[in-house]
Specification:
Layout lengths: L8 H12 L1 H29 L3 H24 L16 H17 L1 H20 L5 H18 L7 E8 L4 E8 L1
Antiparallel strand pairs: 1-2
Helix pairs in contact: 2-3, 2-4, 2-5, 3-4, 3-6, 4-5, 4-6
Length: 182
């Protein structure tokens, strides 16, 4: 006769411990998501400083302030109730805005190699806000959309300073390219 999984005392104990820790797990996810949201602008700024890219640092600052400022302003204009019913300031997620703004900046400024890991961290922040019942999924999506839009307005592609050159040969002609970025 086969006994079920829950007939084992160890399995029952593990099940009840996991059930009891559900609230603590949600708090841990929310806390870690907030920490990631705070860390992302600091990491993006550090990358810009490492690249000696002061213009990029300024663009990231403007992009982040515009994104978070828009989210914060809309939060006080649009009265959307949070999933946990704690207040009516759910839309949009300012914590997610803080995470997605530097992620999109890194993608637009330095390319997908920097953008993909940053977006993974920003998506985790968005997940944590939904999992903690602080926001609806569309609150997070709106914040990501604001970050995308403001980054397209304020962020330019990084071009390292110095001499850039190249050559191209075709069957009927040849090209030499020289430029200097300041």
């Amino acid at each position: 006769m086969s006994r079920g999984f829950f007939s084992s005392p160890a399995a029952l104990t593990a099940f009840f411990l996991l059930a009891a820790c559900g609230a603590a797990r949600a708090d841990a996810i929310a806390t870690s998501g907030t920490a990631v949201a705070i860390a992302l602008p600091l990491v993006a700024g550090g990358i810009s400083l490492y690249q000696d890219d002061r213009m990029g640092l300024a663009e990231m600052t403007v992009d982040t302030f515009a994104t978070v400022g828009t989210a914060y302003a809309l939060k006080h204009v649009v009265h959307e109730e949070r999933p946990d019913h704690s207040d009516a300031q759910s839309f949009p997620s300012d914590t997610s805005a803080l995470a997605f703004a530097p992620a999109q900046y890194l993608w637009d400024r330095y390319g997908w190699e920097y953008g993909v890991p940053a977006y993974a961290a920003a998506i985790y922040t968005g997940y944590s806000r939904v999992e903690a019942k602080e926001h609806h999924w569309y609150d997070v999506a709106a914040s990501a959309g604001f970050a995308f839009g403001f980054s397209k307005i304020f962020t330019t592609r990084y071009r390292p300073p110095g001499l850039n050159y190249g050559a191209e040969i075709t069957p009927h002609s040849g090209y030499i390219h020289l430029s200097y970025n300041f």
